[in-house]
Amino acid sequence: MAEHDDEALNSSSAVEQYGATQPAGTAVLPTDRFENPGEPPHRARRTDVDPKKQRLAERQVATFFYLSIIGSVLSIAAYIAFPIDANDFGSVRSANLFLGLSITLALLALGIGAVYWSKTLVSDRELTEMRHTTRGSDETRAKAVEAFQLADKESGFSRRKLIRNSLIGALVAFPLPGIVLVRDLAPKEDPNELLRHTFWKSGLRLTKDPTGLPIKASDVTIGSVFHVIPEGMLDSEHMLEEKAKAAVLLMRLDPKDLNPGKGQENWGYDGIVAYSKICTHVGCPVALYEQQTHHLLCPCHQSTFDVSNNCEVIFGPAARPLPQLPISVDDDGYLVAQSDFHEPVGPSFWERARS
Predict the structure, then answer these.
(1) Are 308 and 292 in contact (CB under 8 A)?
(2) Claim: this prediction has a pTM higher than 0.90
(3) CB 236 within 8 A of CB 201
(4) How many C-beta atoms lie closer than 10 Å to residue 15's C-beta?
């Protein structure tokens, strides 16, 4: 290290430039610093020197804010005037067109008005403020409050009532389309009833998805898995909505590997069990079955369920087991449902405990 320090000292360009007037090991700092270039010359705006231009700019800003209010109201009107018909794709185009144009008007006018206000009417002066890395003193904090008051004075927010009132109106009107659209997403029926009951009922045969062919118990071998839907669901008017709740996975295990829960001893048939395919985390389809470990895996967030133990959660974010569909066999040997699920399928919802 000593040799290296000597070499660095002997070859230092700083020492050569400024002279070795300091003891060895002392840093040599140049004294020529950059000069403060100062602020550029101030350029007055037209609104700063002409009161007529200032009043015109104020009216223009308010006009943009009023246009934003009109756009918000028009978006609600467009949502009501152009309903979407599931059998008419043209209605989707019309609804999207007029709804999009009106929301664009509300957003664009609000943004342009705010920018134009800051460019034409807010006090225009340059300043340099030092940055403080620690909490300021009480005096500094009081000055901060004073700065906010000064900003209010310079922007004219309290003084320019036309701009202030139009801006408040635009901000109040802007969320209304979102409230109307989101509120209308709720079903007309009681969500508790919609989520609690599925297409399954007593006596319905288990059929293959997507063919709809019924399944015999003899067709299900140990280690196999079937994707199942209720008999007759393919002809349902709301087939996709019903399938989203009624989809089932059917598996056959060695009966000795099953540990049925209390009261569920007769919900399977000779090692054949059926569980909801809808993950209890966020509703993804549980479609991966590992026959050696008897585990079902949700591919979305890796929730893992143990089929041999009532599909209890053994890994992942799911909060409860997959609901089991009680099944039996009819006189022709086909697998049938004993009833609907005894608990809600899919993600836990806010009224699970309500009967």
Answers:
(1) no
(2) no
(3) no
(4) 16
